Amino acid sequence: QVQLVESGGGLVQAGGSLRLSCTASGSIFSINDMGWYRQAPGKQRELVATISTGGSTTYADSVKGRFTISRDNPKNTMYLQMNSLKPEDTAVYYCNAYITYYIHTDSTRSDNYWGQGTQVTVSS
User: Fold this and answer.
1) pLDDT at 1
2) Minimal CA–CA distance to 59: which of 87, 83, 31, 90?
């Protein structure tokens, strides 16, 4: 099976930085588009940034110029470097990936996966 595990969340003061990581493990054939989402208390989950297999990126307007998404394909890992953090960035951050994995030696299947979430809290 396939699993996504996030790490790197925590408590930081406004203006500070954090780096989130998301690593995929299991019988992986390939990882397609990946992304970071976040959900603040009482709000809907929102897209933060995405990155394609080839490295093309998109960002929410609220994080442009402050956050950088990247990935290390050989390590099946995605990162989110967050700088100049603001209290409104406080949320649970989730990684998402569309993964093709082996179900048998010569057959694969593709599904959308979510990590368990990591809390980011920015104090003012």
Assistant:
1) 83
2) 83
